[in-house]
Amino acid sequence: MTPPTALVTGASRGLGAALAEALARRGWRLVVDGRDPARLAATVAALPRPDLVTALPGDVADPAHRAALASAVPDRLDLLVNNASELGPTPLPRLADLPAEALERVLAVNTVAPLALVQAVLPALERARGVVLDVSSDAAVEAYEGWGGYGASKAALDRLTAVLAVEHPALRVYAVDPGDMATDMHRAADPDATGLRDPADVVPALLRLVDEDLPGGRYRAADLAAEAVR
Ligand SMILES: NC(=O)c1ccc[n+]([C@@H]2O[C@H](COP(=O)([O-])OP(=O)(O)OC[C@H]3O[C@@H](n4cnc5c(N)ncnc54)[C@H](OP(=O)(O)O)[C@@H]3O)[C@@H](O)[C@H]2O)c1
């Protein structure tokens, strides 16, 4: 039987790498990206079945790269994970000091690219009655000082996710807030934070959205892990 296929963006480190590893352990075929080719290659080489992985270095904000990702996807796509994301300038500036170009970049990566990827692979997702997982953040719903640009990009992603879920009832479309994790992104935002979760510990919650037939919508990984959701 042909194994299921997932396209996971930003899979060279952090949460994307942890999720890619879990899917690879299940025998899934993967299409993955990340901008740094060496880091992406090293991460893929360490996966259980690198032969089942297509690694395409590139920037999700680049339409040509997105087209390459879509071309690498087979006829049926079981899972699209829009995980690649940028914080914008650090230390995180107050909105009064956020350059317009920096906001445009964050929106291009965190909001526009995920929708464009959905559009690019929609027929393959529909053939598989697949799952879209858009990785959001609590910054989408909480007003944290300094997080306005990134938070706005994730709030807009949440809205796109919610409307896509309504417009494509044959798919399962989710936004998920993974919670705070010990990753490069979190270190860039808050170098002094301690006690953060390993991204691998968040993966089981995300896999619930893949495995179970939960209604489309926005979820918190903490709620999924606590089994409060059904
Ligand atoms: N860490 C947290 O506490 C936290 C909390 C809430 C939500 N999140 C969300 O969780 C997701 C994963 O975050 P993380 O903490 O694992 O981040 P991370 O450690 O910074 O990893 C980000 C991954 O995405 C890739 N990437 C970044 N920009 C990209 C671009 N423009 N095009 C293609 N790939 C790109 C990175 O590789 P390259 O740099 O080589 O491109 C890397 O593989 C993100 O959506 C983030 O917003 C994280």
List keywords for this structure.
230 residues, alpha/beta, seven-stranded parallel sheet, 7 strands, 15% strand, binds NADP nicotinamide-adenine-dinucleotide phosphate
Strand ordering within the main sheet: 3-2-1-4-5-6-7
Measured as a percent range, the helix fraction is: 40-55%
Shape: globular
- Give the C-alpha Rg: 16 Å
Query: What is the CATH class?
Result: Alpha Beta
Reported by name, the CATH topology is Rossmann fold
Distance between the termini: 30 Å
Q: What oligomeric assembly is this protein in? A: single chain
Reading the helices and strands in chain order gives EHEHEHEHEHEHHEH
Mean pLDDT: 97
Under CATH, the homologous superfamily reads NAD(P)-binding Rossmann-like Domain
- Low-confidence segments, ≥5 residues, pLDDT <50? none
Beta-strand portion reads: 5-15%
Largest sheet: number of strands, sense, barrel closure = 7 strands, parallel
